[in-house]
Design goal:
Blueprint: E1 2-11, E2 14-24, E3 29-33, H1 40-47, E4 55-60, E5 63-64, H2 70-76, E6 78-81, H3 93-100, H4 107-120, H5 122-126, H6 137-149, E7 155-159, H7 167-182, E8 186-190, H8 194-200, E9 203-208, E10 211-217, H9 218-223, H10 225-231
Parallel strand pairs: 3-8, 3-9, 6-7, 7-8
Antiparallel strand pairs: 1-2, 1-4, 4-5, 9-10
Helix pairs in contact: 3-6
Length: about 240
């Protein structure tokens, strides 16, 4: 579904991604793990069209999307849930969800999708008229995920969905990620909680200082000494 080939991305003179290549197949959960500042979020922003690669190629469903406008990438079927959730605090839960469908005009289907989100996240139904800025961190994460799903993505990019959440809420979010995949959405997951990420992923890539240094099935990477020592607390 997604093929990234040898991309280089810069912030001014600083090179953030150095020849990164990876693949995501339809129906997979693929996770990127790595320390803070390794380049994981930069990669997602590049896939979303928020950053442009200086070199390299990004193919989605066989077509080049490198350097395309963010809006056309959403239209093609890629949605991102940004790090830090970024809900619109002064808008209600329902208004946030409707914004997720801003490129669509099929009102009846939008209403159906909203009901689907409320089934996945029942708490959002209770809070539908509440201002998003008054939600807890976990509820905001659910809303950010719901908003992205409203665009009907084929590929969902999740950036640090567990960041700052209580352990019980982390479990809920990861269970939901698996549910979303079961419903037919492919997922590329960036996550510092390597233990949780590897427990639900099919395959994984390890990024260090802008380079992919390891890749394989999630089970293979869980067993490597390098991953155990650096990301799994030596488990």
């Amino acid at each position: 579904m997604l093929k990234v080939n040898d991309i280089n991305v810069f912030y001014g003179n600083i090179q953030a991604l150095k020849g990164v290549s990876l693949e995501v197949n339809e129906g997979e959960i693929v996770t990127l793990i790595g320390a803070n500042g390794a380049g994981k979020s930069t990669l997602l922003k590049t896939l979303s069209g928020l950053l442009k690669p200086k070199q390299g190629e990004i193919e989605y469903l066989g077509k080049s999307i490198a350097g395309k406008a963010a809006q056309s990438i959403v239209k093609a079927g890629i949605s991102q849930v940004p790090e830090g959730r970024r809900v619109f605090a002064n808008m209600t839960v329902e208004e946030n969800l409707e914004l997720g469908a801003y490129l669509r005009n099929d009102r009846a289907e939008i209403a159906k999708d909203k009901e689907r989100i409320f089934k996945i996240f029942p708490i959002l139904l209770e809070r539908r008229k509440q201002l998003s800025g008054t939600l807890s961190g976990g509820e905001q994460q659910m809303l950010a995920m719901g908003r992205a799903i409203m665009a009907r993505p084929k590929l969902l990019l999740l950036d640090e969905p567990s960041m700052g959440l209580a352990p019980i809420m982390v479990k809920t979010i990861f269970n939901t990620i698996e549910e979303i995949r079961k419903e037919g959405t492919t997922i590329l997951l960036v996550e510092q909680n390597a233990h949780m990420a590897l427990s639900i992923a099919d395959r994984a890539y390890v990024i260090e200082t802008g380079r992919v240094v390891l890749s394989g099935t999630a089970n293979e990477l869980k067993e490597t000494e390098q991953v155990k020592a650096a990301y799994l607390g030596g488990l």
